[in-house]
Amino acid sequence: MKFAPAAFVVPSRIRAIAVLADQHPGTLRLFYGEDSLPTPSFIKDAAHQAIDANLTFYTPNAGYPALRHAIADRVLDLHGVEIDPLREVVVTAGGMVALLLACQATVGAGDSAVVLTPLWPNVAAAIRVAGAEAIEVPLALGSEGFKLDFDRIEAAIQPNTRLLALASPGNPTAWTATLDDWRTLLEICERHNLWLLADGVYERIVFDGRVAPSPLSLPGARARTIIAQSFSKTYRMTGWRVGYAIAPPELALAMTNLQEFVVSHAPGIAQEAARVALIEGEPFILESQARYARHRQIALDRFRTMPGVTVPEPTGAFYVYPRLEGLADSYDFCRYLVEQKKVGLAPGNAFGQGGEGHIRLCFAVEEEILREALDRFEAGWDAYRQGQ
After folding, report:
1. Rounded to whole angstroms, how far apart are CA atoms 310 and 329?
2. Region 99-111: what's the mean pLDDT?
3. What SS3 state is found at 4?
4. How would you class 285 by CB atoms within 10 Å of its CB: exposed for 0-12, middle for 13-18, buried for 19 or more?
């Protein structure tokens, strides 16, 4: 019997490290992109109230109108842009479904999409699952960190290219696009008639201001821009599986229709909890930003003392993404760290072109775990270098 091409999508190497860590009890788990603290109580309380209110039935495919209005209100607050909550917002069962629906609605067999890497591997995988080719274009890495290589991006576009995809703030790079970056990317998309798919799930985890710049705030952007969002990172809701997409009305309708055949809709209880998160969550976000800033500095200070380690300063998200001098196989090194030092990090080569030679550490953990993980990493890096 034959399998469809989508069945051969490459498994995640981050998950592979997680499976290995399960076999080594006591491993510090800094490979996943999630906070080690639970969802805050005010969100959990909202879920309890949703259960008591019997929000346990099917919901509209695009999500409860009340949540979609709350999303539109927050977009206006953060970016100064008015969107139509009932025509441009699709609530999804997590940010991954938002990405998957966007790809299914814009690319297919015979098409290609340009993906700016290093990037969470699920984005390129969603493109391939839709039947299209993912053309990876790495960010340039210089003395001041990562930046876009616009000439290389434009050179990668083919006659069959339909989509340009990236994340800002970036996972794993923690790089953040400026408004000028978005403007230039949109100009490229306009010249080549491309959709722009922007993964913005870390937009509230920034270290300068309230929110990362968004292409939504640029004139004319909304006609070709898809924003994929999630409640997972900002509100510590990774297990709740609720996110959303913002897209032009015709595309939002197509994504809504597709969602019926993927997962129908996001869970109603999680939707109500997400609505309350948007309305009541600003003080919590400020506390989280301050905590992440402290942990970022701890990680930066420590990595910068280690021989053979170069680390760009993160401007968003909750990762550091150091480059390790002479490291030829980051997956092998991360396996070694789990097996020998019981510290789990994500290998750089899990994130596509430009990722090899790096590792990703998530610093959204308790401070004592972070410090212990850095101790174990340094011991492992010293030993691994000497054994090469």
Report:
1. 17
2. 98
3. coil
4. middle
Q: Average pLDDT over the chain, rounded to whole?
A: 96
Whether residues 115 and 55 fall in one domain: yes
Q: Given the DSSP bridges, would you call strands 343-344 and 28-29 parallel, antiparallel or unpaired?
A: parallel
Report the alpha-carbon distance of residue 197 to residue 114 in Å, rounded. 10
The reply to whether 69 and 164 lie within a common domain is yes
Whole-structure pTM value: 0.95
108 and 15 in one domain?
no
Reply yes or no on whether the pLDDT at 308 is more than 90. Answer: yes
For the segment 182-204, what is each residue's pLDDT rounded down to a tens digit?
A: 999 999 999 999 999 999 999 99
Write down the pLDDT at residue 2.
83
DSSP secondary structure letter of residue 329? -
Domain C-terminal end among 226, 248, 281: 281
Tell me which residue range forms the domain holding 319: 5-39+283-387
Structure tokens at 201: 């799930």
What whole-number distance in Å separates Cα of residue 151 and Cα of residue 156?
9
Q: Which of 247, 281, 315 is the last residue of a domain?
A: 281
Q: How many structural domains comprise the chain?
A: 2
The CATH code of the domain that includes 320 is: 3.90.1150.10
Q: CA-CA distance, 353 to 142, in Å (whole number)?
A: 16
Q: Is the same domain home to 34 and 69? A: no
- Which residues have a Cβ under 8 Å from the Cβ of 38 and sit 6 or more positions away? 44, 236
Determine if residue 95 is left, alpha or beta; phi over 0 gives left, psi from -120 to 50 gives alpha, anything else beta. Answer: alpha
Instruction: Work out the pLDDT band at 16, boundaries 50, 70, 90.
Output: very high
Residues of the chain with pLDDT > 70, as a percent, come to 100
Whether the upstream peptide bond of residue 60 has omega within 30° of 0, thus cis, is no
pLDDT at position 388 is 59
**Which band of pLDDT confidence, cut at 50, 70 and 90, is reported for residue 231?**
very high
8 Å CB contact between 173 and 118: yes
State whether 85 and 227 are in the same domain: yes
Q: How far apart are CA 248 and CA 225, in angstroms?
A: 7
